[in-house]
């Protein structure tokens, strides 16, 4: 089933807490994994969040990072279940970010959860409670973000198969997805021919590579990329995608998977169920998105 | 009047309790439904049930003659496959309200989501607010009345029945295989009676009717269902 959330407040607010509240209200849509991506936190430095399979691989990670940029502070690492999770602050040239992202992902056992300026992805297996307990969410004042609770339907339940997904093609982009793609293997073959490295068997990862690839090719036009995704992806789906400047969504043409929109007091909220919006407003009726619709907001 | 506190009950336990209490006194109020799914589904007897609060999916599905009032919102598939009786929802519902409705009346006093009255075969659905896309899709009978804004593709591929719309833009939002017609005198009277019965302020003369086309792409195999809902009901005793 899966539940998704999107939130925009251009003035800045504690987006992560609000997203977590929204997701708590739709926990029944998926208990297997949860995650949020947060944008616009004040930090100027680039932050890298990466899962590390074995403790000794942290050395490998630092070596790769050293080839592209400078580590500003010692990595904050922690054990979460059976993986180590590292967060590093970097000084790195903007052009090197996609290269570093791809270089880390090319190593078995290392997987980038997010790499960008003022952008962080927190994700974990299990419920929202696990996410909250296992991760210290820094700089919570942000302008926008995405959230997801997952009910695993076709791939492993672990921290890496949680949403949001990012792609080295366009590291700034994160997506959350509710649905299934029936043309996963065709997509995967196509994307691998373009250089994508798949780290999970999750079909949503293919969507993240597809949209990111389109954005790299079209110069960062999210709306165009989502329209293309709506045409190319086969199956039932709602995707919310975010970059530092934009949030947008695409819904499948049959409107099978739910997606709702509610806007009030300068806030824009997207979600799977009406009850989600009661995290911020007491009595709401959110508008249902048209099947096949694509819409994008500039932050 | 009997009361049931649903706070610590599973829906299957709650529904058994409702059936028991309805047999005893004919009127039951449910407290603390906390958006539970499947509330009041499969109620076999007439009587009155009031739910004080919002409900989850499949509220009042398969009811056979009970009058059910939800004082709040209802989730997806409210009144799914209802046979007869009355389902009143004071606020909004999710998608597919009144799907496969066979008989009885459903009134949504707020808005409803997509595919309201999907495949309905009889009965009446009144939506006082707006309806989402594909209202009355593949309808095979009955009346769907939408007072507010209609979504896109109204009446997509409907076979029989009528969809009454007041939205002035409804003509631009119709599905395929339907046309927009004016309302007939007897239909106006029916709507007037329904509005009076359910305390709805609206003038039936303002409505237009979406009806299925009898020609077009289906001409060579026009599906013309001869429905006998009474045969699918339980035998008495």
Report on the structure:
The complex is a heterodimer of chains A (299) and B (237). Chain A has two domains: 213 residues, Aminohydrolase, N-terminal nucleophile (Ntn) domain (Glutamine Phosphoribosylpyrophosphate, subunit 1, domain 1, 4-Layer Sandwich), CATH 3.60.20.10; 73 residues, 2-Layer Sandwich (Alpha-Beta Plaits). Helix content of chain A is 25%, strand content 37%. Chain A has seven helices and 17 strands. The two termini of chain A are 29 Å apart. Chain B has 237 residues and is of the alpha/beta class. Chain B contains three helices and eleven strands; from the N terminus they run E-H-E-E-E-E-E-E-E-E-E-H-E-H. In chain B, 49% of the residues are buried.
Give the ordered list of helices and strands of chain A.
EHEEHEEEHEEHEEEHHHEEEEEE
Q: What is the total domain count of chain A?
A: 2
Averaged pLDDT of chain A = 91
Helix segment tally of chain B: 3
Distance between the termini of chain B: 26 Å
What's the quick description here?
The complex is a heterodimer of chains A (299) and B (237). Chain A is an alpha+beta fold and 299 residues long.
What is the fold's blueprint, element by element?
The complex is a heterodimer of chains A (299) and B (237).
Chain A: E1 3-14, H1 15-25, E2 33-39, E3 46-52, H2 57-68, E4 69-71, E5 76-80, E6 83-92, H3 97-105, E7 110-117, E8 119-125, H4 128-134, E9 141-150, E10 165-166, E11 174-181, H5 184-193, H6 203-218, H7 222-232, E12 235-242, E13 246-251, E14 260-264, E15 267-271, E16 287-288, E17 294-298
Antiparallel strand pairs in A: 1-9, 1-15, 2-8, 2-9, 3-6, 3-7, 4-6, 5-6, 10-11, 11-12, 12-13, 13-17, 14-15, 14-16
Helix pairs in contact in A: 2-3, 5-6, 6-7
Chain B: E1 2-5, H1 11-25, E2 27-31, E3 47-52, E4 64-70, E5 84-89, E6 105-108, E7 124-127, E8 140-146, E9 160-165, E10 178-182, H2 185-197, E11 208-212, H3 229-232
